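Hey, I'm writing a tutorial for new members on how sequence and structure tokens pair up, and I'd like a real worked example in the thread rather than a made-up one. If someone can provide the structure for the chain below, I'll link this post from the tutorial.
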Amino acid sequence: MTKTFIALLVLLALTAVVLTFFWVNRPRKISIDAPVAADFPEQGFSHDAFEALLREHVTPGGRVDYDRWHASSASVSALDSYLAAVSRFSPETTPTRFPERNDALAYWMYGYNAYVIKAVLDRWPVSSVTDIKAPIEAVKGMGFFFQLRFSFGGEHLSLLAVENEKIRARYQDARIHFVLNCASESCPVARPELPTGNELEELMARAAVEFVNDPDNVSVDHDKRTVFLSTIFKWYKKDFINDLRARGRPSARGLIDYVADLATGSLRNELERADNYKIEFRDYDWRLNEAH
């Protein structure tokens, strides 16, 4: 066989592999088989139903009682009803329902969090969202964050697309990383309050402070001259550095300056001493953030 013929065979084989990969990993659309609640407002967008469910099934420590939620048909139906509204309306299809920037941002963040819970409940019991795999799992979490597609205003989107295209690209607010919840131990805690408007600013500010001041997310070892950070700061480093720049904040120490601005008490003092310290990122814990 000639070299040209061999090269053609190799190309055909590679093409077949690629096509097979994309075919078996084609998007899996998640349908919401429920009506929008009869009392859903004609104007605006209400998160009250989801908030009530979170207050019932989220512990004071921010963990989700999936087992009890899954066992309650009323709670499962109520979540589906809320998601029916997320599926029907969006800032793009019904912009008058979202008159302010924070109303739209709240829709995307809370819708994201609600669909994460929905995906876990639909496949309960699971020990991690990474257990929900694509047929060919090329990247860890691909099945959950990319292959599953959820309806937002009739458009089926992956969680990855919602986070990166609908939230990060549009709002450019690093604090969203302290509110989005991926149902894992290393994620920010689940929060039962779902404010909109100006109150959303207060929630995001509080969430940022609480995340940074959790020693699982930020800590200092002076003997090793090392600041240990959550992997979230590694994945979205650009967002946090851009936040410093937008505030006109000198960022000679990069991520250390970002967390130092949010640190309180002894952590703040320790970070002020962390000049020329290296950064190490903690391994991400993908175990489910379940109550039990």
